[in-house]
Amino acid sequence: MSLDEDRPPPDWLGDVSAGVDAWTRRATPGPAVEEGHSPVSRPSRRRGRKAPPPEDTATQVPQADPESVARKILLDQLTGQARSRKELSDKLAKKLVPDDVATRLLDRFEEVGLVDDEAFARAWVQSRQPGKGLARRALAQELRRKGIDDEVARGVLDEVDPADEEEAARALVRKKLRSLARVDDVTATRRLVGMLARKGYGSGLAFAVVKDELAAADRDPLDD
Predict the structure, then answer these.
(1) In the chain, fewer beta carbons within 10 Å around the N or the C end?
(2) Contacts by 59-68, CB closer than 8 A, 24 or more apart
(3) What residues of the chain score a pLDDT lower than 50?
(4) What is the pLDDT of residue 166?
(5) Which family does it belong to (predicted)?
(6) Within a domain: residue 58?
(7) Quick check: 221 and 215 in contact, CB under 8 A?
(8) The pTM is what?
(9) Residue 14 placed within a domain
(10) 12-21 tens-digit pLDDT
(11) Is 42 within the bounds of a domain?
């Protein structure tokens, strides 16, 4: 008898499927799933999506107090140019700074000379009078819109030399005349006087300056 005949028969004898499993060492199947139930699967993981880290409260910056915010706004506004108190007050109000905080800081800025309506008005007049040729009447309106007190404005405007005001009017007329070369003298006179009126000049000075400048350009001005 051969050795193979002495061996006991294998467990899978007569069962082809079990025999294949034994020879290929295939993993033993998991527990059977009852009919009507789905097999339990592992939770799926989506690539590239991670749970957000917990909020780091230690690095949170506390909200700035209104006074610090208002002080920074004022310093930023005053960098590079002067501003009137009203302009600064309007800016703080737009940023929702409480009225009491705004008033306290503006008072303090005035005490140290960072806010000075008289100095602001003087600088404004010195730039607008020769630069734009504005008369004192027009300058007074601009200062009022800037929130400058009328008494302060009058004091500053009184410093304007009438001769400088007249010379600014003459410069405006000479410049405008170059574009009126093909306009008749009557129309030119009316346009020039109207321009000076819009710049704040009175009618007496306006007509006198226009008459002189038209005559100097060999043109016949309209009589007063």
Answers:
(1) N
(2) 66/97, 66/98, 66/101, 67/101, 67/104, 67/105
(3) 1, 12, 20, 23, 27, 32-33, 36, 40, 57-62
(4) 94
(5) Belongs to the RecX family.
(6) no
(7) yes
(8) 0.64
(9) no
(10) 455 555 554 5
(11) no
Residue range(s) defining the domain that contains residue 204: 161-224
Domain stop point among 86, 111, 136: 111
Three-state SS string over the chain comes to: CCHHHHCCCCCCCCCHHHHHHHHHCCCCCCCCCCCCCCCCCCCCCCCCCCCCCCCCHHHCCCCCCHHHHHHHHHHHHHCCCCCCHHHHHHHHHHCCCCHHHHHHHHHHHHHCCCCCHHHHHHHHHHHHHHHHCCCHHHHHHHHHHCCCCHHHHHHHHCCCCHHHHHHHHHHHHHHHHCCCCCCCHHHHHHHHHHHHHHCCCCHHHHHHHHHHHHHHCCCCCCCC
53 in a domain, yes or no? no
Output phi, psi for 213, to 5 deg. -70, -35
- For 109-119, give one letter per residue: b (16+ CB within 10 A) or e: beeeeebebee
**What is the count of structural domains for the chain?**
3
Question: Do 136 and 160 touch, CB atoms closer than 8 A?
Answer: yes
Q: How far is Cα 158 from Cα 27, in angstroms, rounded to an integer?
A: 107
Distance CA 204, CA 222 (A): 14
Q: How many Cα atoms within 13 Å fall on the side-chain side of residue 7?
A: 7
Straight-line distance from the first to the last Cα atom of the chain, in angstroms, rounded to the nearest whole number: 153
Neighbours of 91 (CB within 10 A): 17
